[in-house]
Amino acid sequence: MGKYVRIESDDGTHWGILHEENIAEISGNPVFGVEPTGRNFLPSNIKFLAPVEPSKIVCVGLNYREHVKESQSATKEPDEPVLFLKPPSALIGPGGKIIYPDMAQRVDYEAELGVVIGKECRNIAPVEADDYIFGLTCVNDVTARDLQKKDVQWTRGKGFDTFCPVGPWIVDDAQYDDLLVESYLNGELKQSSRTSMMIFPMPVLISFISRVMTLLPGDLISTGTPAGISPMKIGDRIEIKVEGIGSLVNDIA
Ligand code: MG
C-alpha cells in the first residue's frame, strides 16, 4: 500500500512513494511494478506532477442524480453511462495553474473520483473490475460550460490544456464504494456527495468502458461529478477533496 507520486526535481521527472519524511524513488510508473531505486527526495525540494501517464482519460458524464437535475445537457437520467475523452495534454498536477481560455465565457470545476487501471482490460464483467484497478486519485474535470453546450460533442469544452488537474497522488488501498467527494471554491464548500450516490457504480463503469475500448495499464477513468457545479474566475483557488485520498488544489490564471 502507498501513496504514489510523480515529481519533478532539478534533474528530471521521477516516480516515487510518499512517506512522512521523504519520497522514495521507484524505477517507473507503479502500474508496471514497484521497484525502489534507493534514492530519496525531500518533499520541500520537488514539484508534484499529475501522478498518471495515461494513454487516454475516459470520463463519465451525468453519473450523479442531483447533477443530472442541475445540468442542461440531459433531461433525464442516462440509461447507459455517457462517455467522453479528455486528451492527456490537458493534465496538470497539484499546484498547477488552470489557464482560462480566451474562447470561453464560463469555466466550471467538477470534483470527481479518478481510478487508475492496473492491467490491460477488455470485455470484462463488473464482478471482475476490482482485479483491474491499480488505485484511486482526485480529478477536477474542468469544463468550459458555454462551449460544451454550444458544440454537438464535448471535445473542446472538456479538452483545453490544463483542464485535467489530477492528484495529489494515487492511493492503492482505498475502497471506492462510499467516499466523500467535495469541492471548495476559495475555501467555500460547493460540492459534497458520496460515491455511493453514483448512478453507475465503479464496476459497471469499468466493465462498460472495457466493452468499448481496451483499457491499458495507467489509463485514467474519471467517474463523474455530483451536484453543485459553478463557474470559476481568474484568481480563484479550487480544491477537490476525496475521502481517503487527499486534496487537489489549483489556481485559475
Ligand atoms: Mg465531469
Brief account:
The protein has four helices and 20 strands. It is mainly β.
Task: Characterise the protein shown here.
The chain has 253 residues and is mainly beta. It folds into 2 domains: 3-47, Roll (SH3 type barrels), CATH 2.30.30.370; 57-252, Fumarylacetoacetate hydrolase, domain 2 (Alpha-Beta Complex). It is built from 4 helices and 20 strands. It has helices at residues 65-70, 145-150, 155-159, 202-210; strands spanning 3-9, 12-18, 23-26, 36-41, 47-49, 57-61, 82-86, 91-92, 97-98, 107-108, 111-117, 133-140, 143-144, 164-171, 180-185, 188-194, 220-222, 231-232, 237-242, 246-252. The strands form 3 sheets. Strands 1, 2, 3, 4, 5, 6, 7, 8, 11, 12, 14 and 17 form a 12-stranded mixed beta sheet that branches. The chain is globular. The model has no long low-confidence stretch (mean pLDDT 96). The chain binds magnesium ion (MG).
